[in-house]
Prior knowledge:
By secondary structure, chain A is an alpha+beta fold. Chain A contains 3 helices and 10 strands, in the order αβαβββββββββα. Chain A has a domain at 111-302. The longest helix of chain A has 24 residues, at 2-25. Chain A is globular and about 50 Å long. Chain B has a single domain (2-132), classed as Lipocalin (Beta Barrel), CATH 2.40.128.
Amino acid sequence: MRRSKLTILLASGGATLLFLALTMTGIGQGGAAPAAGQRGAQAPAAQGTPAPALPAAAGAAGGNAAGGNRGGGNRGGNGRGRGNAAPAQPTPRWPDGKPMMGSIPGQPTGRWSGCCTTLPQGMLDKIPFQPWAKAVYDQRQIDQFEPHTRCHASGAARQFSTPYGTELLEMRDLQRIYIMDEGGPHSYRIIYMDGRQHPAKLIPTNYGHSVGHWEGDTLVVDTVGYNEKFWIDTRGTPHTNQLHFVERFTRTDSNTMQYVATIDDPGAYTAPWTTQVMTMRWTANSDLFEYICQDNNHGPELMIGSQESEDRTRQFVP
Amino acid sequence: MKLKVLIGFSLLVILALSTAATAQEGHPMTGTWYGDFGSSPTNRNDLTVIMNWDGKAVNGIINPGPDVVKIKSATLDSTKWAVHFEADAKNKAGGMDHFVFDGTMKNVVAGNRTISGTWTCGTTKGDFKIQRDL
């Protein structure tokens, strides 16, 4: 009996060591998805190929249980080397050759994440802030009273920096793309792909009015009509209701979406500026889940004055 | 009766202007601010200021309603969060009084930020404090 217990103990220890070793080498969780041109990448599909070049079943290496609530095992997938990405395949395409921007019909769904936390990333000193906008940006690095923490819908690039992922849902028959972000108020943005123009008169909204078109393999989304009730990224890059926001999405392989935004806002900047290329990563075989932002949310109390004595000499994140 | 109609109309105007000025996260001075000003702790007057940033300058009004006053100039020194605004208001004698407000914005990142400081009107002076409406 004692020998049997010892055997079990040794076996358990060995299994643990093996698991740790596999995890550290990236084998145990599917590893970091290779970038285009690296291991696992294949030649890109030809433009206009009649049959879509679909990648292999995305769930093969995922093993990600469906997350039923926040805090569950489904909240990872930030695309920084520990997501549930299968090896990268060529960019999936529709029969007309256009890249698929979201999940592949008939295969397990997935979502994008790991992008756009800070639009000035790597170029803060080059951004043409108006003085007030730079001062506000600096202050927001200390006091991060972000509206998103109070469940406000947050448009522009902020939609993509939720830790729970973002789904791009193409409704080709309706000529629309829906962007659904987890967290916040569980809302969505519509990108109209039917060639319409922005309305002459718009009631400013959190998501604004988005129209999209294709430039080669890049989806270009043009948005105006924003209000000032949200931040356009997690770090509080300022904007006003004069913001004209242009996003460029390029899916370079099945696991990678490159994202570039141009900010044209004469209310906050002295000239338009364009971000560096940022990257979203694909988490395969996972769904958005029911996230109720208002549950146990202490953000509002911190915003309405009951915490006036809060120490503002240190960084504060509600 | 006339007074009730006047008060009702004033409330409607305030409500309409407030609805139009609910921006929170843009220029820090944009929004509707409520509070009071006076020459002493016991001599207070309500103060409502509605300001908007057009990309180049701050404009706005004080105490919307029948006695609304247009702001002549308003500035923000974001290096010190110092706020300055001026306005000319009709006095009871039919003349004009020139008000100058100088204050400091606090809790800048919060939607319910405040501006407090001093005001002058000729030889009269006092203090004021207004808080931005969420």
